[in-house]
Amino acid sequence: MTTPLAAVTGADGFIGSHLVQALVASGHRVRAMAQYNSWGTHGWLDTLPPDVLDQVDTVLGDVRDPGSVQDLVAGADCVYHLAALIAIPYSYRAPHSYVETNVSGTLNVLQAVRRAATPRLVHTSTSETYGTAQTVPITEDHPVNCQSPYAASKAGADQLVASYTASFDTPAVTLRPFNTFGPRQSMRAVIPAVIGQLAAGAETLRLGDLRPTRDFMFVQDTAQAFVAVGTAPGADVLGRVFNAGTGTETSVGEAVRLIAQLMDTGAVVEEDPQRLRPTGSEVMRLLCDASRLRDATGWKPEHTLESGLDHTIRFFRDPANLARYRTAAYTI
Ligand SMILES: NC(=O)c1ccc[n+]([C@@H]2O[C@H](COP(=O)([O-])OP(=O)(O)OC[C@H]3O[C@@H](n4cnc5c(N)ncnc54)[C@H](O)[C@@H]3O)[C@@H](O)[C@H]2O)c1
């Protein structure tokens, strides 16, 4: 049997680099796109173990460029499309770049897989497209209500994927992860912002709103959800949208308290006004119902919030990892 070839956009990023590892562990060869940059770095891919990288061909490219996407997908058995601009605060400041990357970039992926007759596209959505939960837990039938330009650009991409399946029978499946955390995440998200500041010795934690609740999922579980929809029988997943989350609701404040306890610190929390979002844009509640994904693929999360936090704390306590972050600055 030949080794299946997976092509991954956003492979240089947080979830993408964990997905590359999961794909290699499940017997794939991977063609990984890292975003072109003048330093020639491959993002987090540069930190993967050599035995993983033996199975990975990394190409520099850009999803905004149709040609580089065509080259990436050529001959792939499955394309995992994760590349995106993801920061909500930066989407207030630079919304055009979100449309170009997240909407036009996804259109380029769709055109490329259509042209190459790729057997499967796994597209990445986000729980942010639901906005503050109107009913809980959130199923895939919950209304879409975008509260940030980021969410709107992702919903636009989701609709393009649905339209390609309707119009051209494009064999696509959309995975909609809820909030993911773990090693390699950037300081833009709350869990690494807390752990990073504490690991750097901060006695005062500078944070935004502590009231919103989230369904926090450890990144290895998110990566396994991608592999699950990428490898399940087509009849079970193609043309469908799947939530991925744990079904556990935790407020940001509760997560902060748990981290402080696990890291054995008495740090005090200080509200940082620049980290607060406009009231109408803050998504106050997200809680996932992932039963559709479980029923279709058998996937379920393997980590609790606490065990995932343990892994994440160990990562940030390693000085070599911590040195990659600016923990004192507010990163958007
Ligand atoms: N982190 C979460 O909690 C979460 C939750 C739901 C969905 N998602 C989705 O998961 C995906 C990955 O997110 P992440 O958290 O790993 O973020 P990330 O920023 O670490 O990864 C995104 C990657 O996309 C790449 N990229 C950006 N613009 C590009 C371009 N023009 N061309 C090529 N590559 C480009 C970046 O280099 C980056 O590494 C995104 O689609 C995001 O919307 C993330």
From TrEMBL:
It is an enzyme of class 4 (lyase). It comes from the Bacteria. InterPro entries: Arna-like_SDR_e, NAD(P)-bd_dom, NAD(P)-bd_dom_sf. Its EC number is 4.2.1.46. One of its GO terms (molecular function) is dTDP-glucose 4,6-dehydratase activity. Gene3D superfamilies: NAD(P)-binding Rossmann-like Domain. Residues 8-311 form the NAD(P)-binding domain. Pfam families: GDP_Man_Dehyd. Keywords: Lyase. This is dTDP-glucose 4,6-dehydratase. The gene is rmlB.
